[in-house]
Design goal:
287 residues; mainly alpha; MetI-like fold
């Protein structure tokens, strides 16, 4: 056999291989229902629990206007208020604040983590302040932020950045420090500088962790935009103002509808950056 290796396959092996291929195809065809069925079941269970809670507050506590039935919230979506140009403008304003604050959180977080990854003493010196920033109650700082930076767009962005910053710092630092020791030693043997090691080894290996932090920060940025909007009433209003207005009017259905819209915005931003992550690192890391 001139350099080639002949593989003899028995009929039994062929049958096993064909059966395995049929099973893989069947699994692939049934994978769709297996993916979306559990979330749908959980959603129906939550709707059932919501009806029970609303029934309790309506019939026993007499507070049905505060905890409305789900169908009343759905009905609220078809009111003129929720299809008005003002609502879409509020949604656009909150999206602008969320994405701007997220952009600042990404830049600051990556630079902060990169600096800490260069030396152990820098990590010990700077990381505690990232933890402190995460633990500070943002609401306690809101009056000070308003006094220093005003009560409009910049203050909203600062609150959003502070809320979304920690996931970027912690996940980026974890990814940069998780580079394989043997690969680090190989770079050192080749005389590579710290910058070369950072750019060609640490950052490529840290990309999955960075995008994981980015997805978490994306969801938190929407929360920051809503919180900032509720406390800084001047300037262009957003969804936070809508939630506050409907709550002050004791419009429970309207409040829940506004909260659902804000949640959908967070889900869209989360899925958007998850899609970007799959495009960038999806070939070697599953999101």
């Amino acid at each position: 056999m001139s350099g080639a290796e002949t593989v003899i396959t028995s009929p039994r092996d062929v049958a096993i291989e064909r059966r395995g291929e049929r099973q893989r195809r069947a699994y692939s065809r049934g994978r769709g229902p297996l993916i979306w069925m559990p979330p749908v079941i959980v959603f129906l269970i939550l709707i059932g629990i919501w009806y029970l809670v609303a029934l309790y507050y309506d019939k026993i506590q007499g507070l049905g206007f505060l905890v409305p039935y789900p169908h009343l919230v759905l009905k609220e979506f078809f009111n003129d208020q929720y299809f008005s140009p003002q609502l879409w403008q509020d949604l656009l304003n909150s999206t602008e604040v969320a994405l701007t604050g997220l952009a600042f959180a990404i830049v600051i977080g990556v630079l902060w983590a990169t600096l800490m990854s260069t030396a152990k003493w820098l990590e010990r010196s700077l990381y505690p302040y990232a933890v402190i920033l995460q633990c500070i109650p943002i609401l306690a700082l809101v009056p000070l932020i308003g006094i220093l930076f005003g009560y409009e767009f910049p203050s909203r962005v600062i609150v959003t950045t502070m809320i979304a910053l920690f996931p970027m710092v912690s996940n980026t630092l974890f990814g940069l420090l998780a580079a394989d020791r043997s690969q680090r030693e190989l770079f050192q043997l080749q005389g590579a500088s710290k910058l070369t090691t950072l750019v060609k080894l640490q950052f490529p290996g840290a990309m999955p962790s960075i995008f994981l932090g980015l997805r978490n920060a994306a969801g938190l940025s929407v929360i920051g935009a809503i919180v900032g909007d509720q406390f800084f009433q001047r300037g262009n209003p957003g969804l936070g103002v809508l939630i506050q207005v409907t709550t002050s009017r004791a419009n429970g259905a309207g409040t829940f509808a506004a909260i659902i819209i804000a949640s959908l915005l967070g889900i869209v931003v989360f899925l958007l950056f998850g899609w970007i992550a799959r495009l960038v690192v999806g070939k070697w890391y599953e999101f």
